[in-house]
Design a protein that fits this description.
By secondary structure, this protein is of the alpha+beta class. It is built from 3 helices and 9 strands; from the N terminus they run αββββββαββαβ. The chain has one domain. The longest helix is centred in the middle third of the chain and has 11 residues.
Length: about 170
């Protein structure tokens, strides 16, 4: 019976840790997620998706195609997340998105994959101006000088499986 449970779906595994995310003026995000207690580092890169309809929730709600990168395996997985807030961002899986038309959400999921990865992030520390630039120079030097703000906070990712075959 125990052997059977070992073959169960990997999607139940929850990776928890701390993320450091730079919010760029162009709407993109870049950063890293450190899974604790193992200190495994994953890269994060996100690009804003266009909403083809007027969204009733205002401009602080947007959809992001978030790419999670495993540098050791040289693999990546994409997931669509909702980003709320301006400088202090909150990311949540599209399953929990509010204010987007169902057909827009369906179109985005169809277009960008149907991975059942659930993401949750809440900014606990916001760094701007000199503090942000110092953080970026130390931990994300390629982003130096781009006038980004930095969000640091707890992140959890459920269902992230780099071993599964990607379905396009």
């Amino acid at each position: 019976m125990e052997a059977e449970s070992n073959r169960g779906p990997v999607e139940e595994e929850v990776k928890e840790g701390v993320a450091s995310i730079a919010l760029l003026p162009c709407g993109s995000i870049s950063g890293h997620f450190i899974q604790l207690p193992h200190s495994i580092c994953y890269g994060l890169h996100g690009t804003e998706l266009e909403c083809e309809r007027e969204c009733s929730r205002g401009e602080d709600y947007r959809l992001i195609k978030l790419t999670i990168i495993d540098y050791n395996r040289k693999k990546e997985r994409d997931v669509i997340v909702e980003c709320r807030g301006h400088d202090a961002a909150r990311l949540s899986s599209i399953d929990h998105a509010h204010g987007w038309e169902k057909d827009v959400v369906g179109m985005v999921e169809q277009k960008h994959g149907k991975n059942k990865i659930l993401v949750s992030f809440n900014c606990e520390t916001l760094k701007a101006e000199k503090a942000a630039e110092d953080h970026i120079r130390n931990f994300m030097p390629k982003l130096a000088g781009l006038d980004a703000v930095v969000n640091i906070g707890r992140m959890s990712i459920t269902g992230l499986d780099f071993e599964a075959e990607e379905v396009d």
